[in-house]
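Q: Predict the assembly, please.
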Amino acid sequence: MRRPVLVPVVLLVMALVIAACETAQVTPAPGDTPPPGVDTPPPVGDTPPPAGDTPPPNGATAPPGPPTGGILAEVRSRGELICGVNSNLPGFGFPEEGTGRWLGFDADYCRAVAAAVLGNPEAVQFRPLSTDDRSIALQTREIDVLIRNTTWTLSRDTEWGLFAPTTFYDGQGMMVRADSGVQELTDLQGATICVQSGTTTELTLPDQMNALGVDFTPGVYGTIDETYQVYESGACDAVTSDRSQLVARRTLFANPDEHVLLDEVMSKEPLGPSVPFGDAQWFNIVKWVVFATIQAEEVGVDSTNVAQMRDTSTDVVVLRLLGAQDELGAKLGLDNDWVVNVITGVGNYGEIYNRHLGPDTPFNLPRGPNELWTEGGLLYAPPLR
Amino acid sequence: MTVAPTPAGKPRSVAPLWRDVRVLRVAAQIVVVALVLLIGWLLWSTLSDNMAASRLSFGLGFLEQTAGFEIAQTPISFGSTDTFARAFAVGLLNTLLVSISGIVLATLLGVVVGVARLSRNWLANRIAAGYVELMRNTPLLVQLILLYVVFLQLPSVANSVQLPGSIFLNQRGLFMPRPEAEPTFGIWAAVLVVSVLIAVAAARLAARREADGRPTYRLRTLGILALVALPLVSWLVLGPVAFDQPIQERFNFVGGVSLSPEFAALLLGLVIYTAAFIGEVVRGAIQAVRRGQVEAAYAIGLTPGQTLRLVVFPQALRIIVPPLTSQYLNLTKNSSLAVAIGFADVFSVGRTMVNQTGQPLSVIALVMGTYLVLSLVTSLFMNVYNRRVQVLER
Amino acid sequence: MTVEQLAPPQVSTGRVAWLRENLFSGWANSLVTIVLGGSLILFAVLLADWAVNQARWGVITANLRLFLMGFYPLDQAWRVWLTLALFSSLAGLSAGRSRLGPVRTLVIWFGVSQALLAGLAAVAALEAISIPGRLGQFEEMVAVTVAFLANAAIVFAVYWLSLRIQTPRWLLPLGWLASVPMTLLLLQGIGIRGLPLVSSSTWGGLLLTFLLAIVGIVLSFPFGVLLALGRRSDLPALRWLSTAYIEVVRGVPLVTLLFMAAVMVPLFLPGGVRIEHVYRAMAGITLFSAAYVAENVRGGLQAIPSGQIEAAHAIGLSTIKTNLYIVLPQALRSVIPANVGLFISLLKDTTLVAIAGTGLLELLGIGRSVLAQTQWVGAQLEVYIFISAVFFVLCYTMSQASYRLEEALGVGKR
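A: Predicted assembly structure:
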């Protein structure tokens, strides 16, 4: 007689203890915590109710940092940077097959920020995000920084978070099958066009096509994979996105040569990092990490010569950049060799670009507007002083 | 739990306050409510702080703003210049469309499956059983994605499969002629009504003459003849309905009605999945009808079909309705998996709106509220029906 | 009516007689047989042709590790194996302790399915060895094969032992309950040497699928029982709150709850507090399934005749004791099959985390990420059919055991 009674009791109490440990933080169950009393369910009558504000022993990683320390303090006490990235875009953000190591232009900018803040470019927790989820992840501070080929617009700058300087100047393009005979956008009258939801390209597409008087059927998909799979299967006549993305995703097609980009550029797409609202210090850090990589390329500092340049250079601009002179890092709340860490870890802008998008990659994207201002491009870092 | 009333024999005055059941009952409830309110308040205050910090806001004002995005499947016209409210309505209509057609089709298929499960034909029985197990033991989401993948492997537009009656099937969907009423449709409808009246009148007259023992002069047959012939002839003469044929243009078929592969995959997936569950419900209900009922029906000379229709189904219906209701609810809720295959149901549209409006909580509350209302309405409707079935039965 | 008119029932046992009886008993029946049989054969031939001649099953064998345990670091894989060994021992122990045949069936299936997976890993090893430069995968897969076989052996060894060696009675329930926190602790690590922290973002594949479902069902059980008791309580506040919770949760799709858990939770937490995605998904699943557990348990509670409760009061048991000793043991016992059913749907429903924006890669999520690999683009059918097959084997076994459990427990017969 004793056993059947004991089993459920042990079961309930044990499980409730686990429940309190595991889910207390997230499940303050309304109406389910029994008060001690005659008419309440007996087995758990005096188990303490799930605590509302004690972090559970595991499951939650609550950094003990100061409550108002901002994102920098949080990242430091956590020991890693949480960076929102694209997981399906070769060249920008993509886990390497086999190893799972995150590769790409954007992924390296995550490492650059981690190198500047923590001194270790690998102290990054990459958080893959879809286009539909990235804004909310930034708004809820789920991530410290969003570096996910995200276009800077006025609305996003005021609604999502603050945009640091552009790392990649892009434009919206249109990809079609080479044998379709489509030469320009107006040839797409009556066509079905694939586009990914939650992107600026989704919004630009109807604007542009309406202006041209072209009727089209939209095919709107939630993930980047789906968008390109549907296009490749033939269910869409064209696919539109940032030109860099079209080029990058084309390399994943079974027959990349059968697809061409139209010459027309439909919009401006400045892609760059963004950070949550309300933390000016953090915004400055991300902003100046980007500028530092640009400045380093401009003054000829790269990952191979950075140590030597710091020790031997006589150029005061280089010395300031590398922290051998002045206390620029301290102004940001960082170590003074923050730029050295960044350049040692990932290299200057040109190195990052060439590693993932340059001539030795399958994409071979010409620098174009992403050339330094001294070379006729748009990359221009304000003085680091 | 059922709590027994205070034992009557116990002298109540002896119990101290903290053991007085009446006091404890009130106290317990106050504690619970206070606890819930406290937790709610804590969550709410954290939420408002966080929302303010992230420049998010509550409210539904955004519904009047321009949406700016396109939706692929639109039962009502929708463009990027329409409002968020209209976008939401499009999603809601899509959900309703797929749920209602899904419920109807799944019920029909489910009854077939349930009957097949009880078939004396061994093969039909086994196939139905295998189908049911296959559907019930694999995730619906994977089934939907698989179906969609298969649909995308259909021939391209240029190589569409042409089915009889100008119906085309390709990877962009099923394209069919759309019936459109011509001006003469009204006349034809009038003819139809008149012929129905003639048939009814003839049948009544025949019945009366029969009752009086007078000859009926084949009035019934004549009535039926009128019912068939008049509309048919006038249809041929008037041509009341024209068909808008789908025509292949450079990229797509234009005109007619079309069924997108997303919608088709979702509908088909929901129907074959839910039908397996409904089949089991139907089988259980039929088996629950007593064997003697069937034997009695045979004994009074009913055919197997008549037995099923007149004796078994009406009784089985009484048992079927409550579990059927929960299957209908499941189907409606499962339609939210549309998001996986790019069909713009209320949840997919909601997700895009979360991204575009900066008011995630309002949007998600709107979406969840919608599903709640749909569930409640379905339950209500089925409960009313259930009551009618029960009353008819007894 | 004369007795002679009734022919004695014929027992026909021949093959032809069986065919005539079951397949060709009339023209309609024959037609059904021919049409159904014809389409079935056609379908089977087409499918077999595809599976043998066209399908690229290499996508499965080459990524078997991902399908099994996601991106869990290879040098820490022993923890996953230890977890599995723990469950294997508990399963073997349960089989030995249980007097119920279905439990044994289930456990034997558990062992057999591990052997099946071992076979799959062996195939992957064989395939890897035929390709030069894939030695790493070969060694890995040999290890996986051995580990699975070892686990299958543990199941049967512990079963055999538990039949012969007396273990304390409390060991089994305690073991099962402790297994959940132990598993999580083991997989996550405690940050010391030898047991370093492993980010939960690396958990994936079948490992994560099981974790989500098991944690979901175990944690939702006590919660659901409380809700059920609350709903049947005669205290209005308790009853209304419980009812409202149950009905609201049952009225919305799981995917919306998971979406809430995935993207909205940070808004409800004070700054600086973070909860890993995997725990949020578990919380979402727990909150969801609690409402369904509650309804199952309520059914069980309703089946208890009120005479039992009255009798309990008559012999002087308090309400607490009545519930504890009389009502709950019977009610919970009768809802076991329904809860197995719930566990099956929960296991299938874990796939929803792949589309709810959680970023978690359970079996379906891993499948999708494998399809993003360059050399396997377009192998969707293979991947999704494999995933369906895995779920089918798991769920079908459990559902069969659940039916038999229902019979063994005599549910509905008392």
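The two ends of chain A are 82 Å apart (CA to CA). The first strand of chain A starts at residue 81 and ends at 85.
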